[in-house]
Amino acid sequence: MKPKVLVAATCRWFTAARLATALTKAGCTVTAVCPLAHPLAKTRAAQQICIYNGFAPLKTLADAIAATEPDFILPCDDRATQQLYALYRKSRTRGKAGESICALIEHSFGSPECLPTAYTRTAFMEMAAAEGIRVPTTTVIHNPAELEPCVGRMGLPLVLKADGTSGGLGVKVAHGIKEAKRAFRALQAPPPLARVIKRAVIDRDYALLWPLLLRRRSVVNAQALVAGHDATSAIVCWKGAVLASLHFEVLSKADAAGHATVLRLIENTEMAGATEKIARCLNLSGVHGFDFILEAGTGNAYLIEMNPRATQVGHLTLGPGRDLPAALYAALSGDVMQSAPKLTENDTIALFPHEWLRNPQSSFLQSGYHDVPWDEPELVRACISARPKQHRRNSPTSQDILSTSPDRLAWSEKGAQRQ
Q1: How is 88-99 classified by DSSP, letter by letter?
Q2: Distance between CA 287 and CA 63 in Å, rounded?
Q3: Pair 236, 211: CB distance under 8 Å
């Protein structure tokens, strides 16, 4: 019997679509709960898709669990993780009626009680430091008056981060006290009306409505800036033990505080050791991501964040010990782990469609391995159609990309015929 994985997505990131395809290839049966018009619907991976309703998120998730009867839930964005934890807490109050949902979520995360720590930046940094992991000094800022003594201790520039945010939206770097105070007020304030309307009307994403209506303020943390460059890790773990891992140096990002678009595969014992310590300390199961800064000059790896969810590199199959979908399948099925053929021998990987969306003329699309899902032509077309309008006039179309290799085009056409 194939293990059944419910992929949970509350926004239209491409991560869920790529991971669903990889899990299907690894041997899992995939179902999904995601918003309408999600890229995942353009793949052949999910056998059943339940529509996510942002107005009733916990009911949506509970209904999807009841409808698909999964063996495991895999969240693909932070909101999905946070709402699964809220569903867990609510189910615990229902006694026997909530036991099955609680057991499933515990099976999927290890200990769901670790999630508040992961999303409370200062508490997570303190926990990591107690495990002997190298971290930057981090503290909660309660009001603007606390910023001046904080700068005296940490220096400038100062990084300000809001709890519960992701994708770089809750991060600002301040180069002076006045700038730090402006950044603090912006990060602490409820989301601006224009952003809420745009999300609701254009993206059909209603998650910001309640924080706006309730005037909910965020907890803001100050973190010492570590001069260096970004790195990231992704792991599959089971009951506190890491089964497979990927470690990358970030070569390009969507913007200064945004997600990675080009990565270089590396071996880094400090990053690997940090992820193993966190997995063991929090008794983690499932798929998790970690962000680091590799300090300039020393190469020391500073852990700066944990993402208790699948990240955008989770679908990459890069050989034994570096195949997260195969590791998850083995953990769920009890079978011996069998890694898929290695995608590429090129250590530089341009993530599709992210590097394409950043710059259709990027040299990394030629020098690195361009991670295009050639066997999912409808997904390719959907991804390319999402590129910014300013790129469309002078950049190739989806058909141009599909025709870059006769072999790949034929492969894609066969996939389309199977649909």
Answers
A1: HHHHHTTGGGGH
A2: 23
A3: no
Q: What's residue 166's pLDDT?
A: 65
Residue 50 · residue 67 · CB < 8 Å: yes
pLDDT above 60 for 417: no
Cα gap 323→101, rounded to integer Å: 28
Residue 408's pLDDT is what?
45
**Cα–Cα–Cα angle for 200, 202, 203, nearest 5°?**
70
Helix and strand tally (H, E) in the chain?
18, 15
Map out the domains of the chain with their CATH numbers: 4-109 (3.40.50.20), 137-224 (3.30.1490.20)
Q: What is the mean pLDDT of residues 81-92?
A: 95
| Alpha-carbon separation of residue 156 from 11, 139, 160 (angstroms) | 35, 15, 11
pTM confidence score: 0.88
Would you state the pLDDT for residue 1?
Answer: 82
Q: CA–CA separation, 73 vs 166, rounded Å?
A: 20
Q: Which residue has the tokens 């390719």?
A: 380
Q: How far is CA 67 from CA 49, 70, 84, in A?
A: 10, 9, 16
At 376 the three-state DSSP class reads: coil
Q: Can you tell me the mean pLDDT for 86-91?
A: 96
pLDDT over 90 percentage in the chain? 73
Q: Look at residues 118, 151, 117, 148 and name the one whose alpha carbon lies nearest to residue 137.
A: 151
Which residue pairs from 411-414 have beta carbons closer than 8 angstroms and sit at least 24 positions apart in sequence?
411/374, 411/375, 412/374, 412/375, 412/377, 412/380, 413/377
As given in the structure block, the two tokens for residue 60 are 């949506």
Average pLDDT, the chain: 88
Beta strands of 87-163 (E only): which ranges? 138-141, 158-162
Residue 316 CB burial class (10 angstroms; 0-12, 13-18, ≥19): buried
Instruction: Give me the pLDDT at residue 209, please.
Output: 58
| Range in 215-219, 315-319, 375-379 with the lowest mean pLDDT | 215-219
What sign results for the dihedral spanned by CA atoms 49, 114, 282, 96? negative
Residue 418 has pLDDT above 50, yes or no: no
Whether the CB-CB separation of 113 and 92 falls below 8 Å is answered with: no
Which pLDDT value is given to residue 173? 93
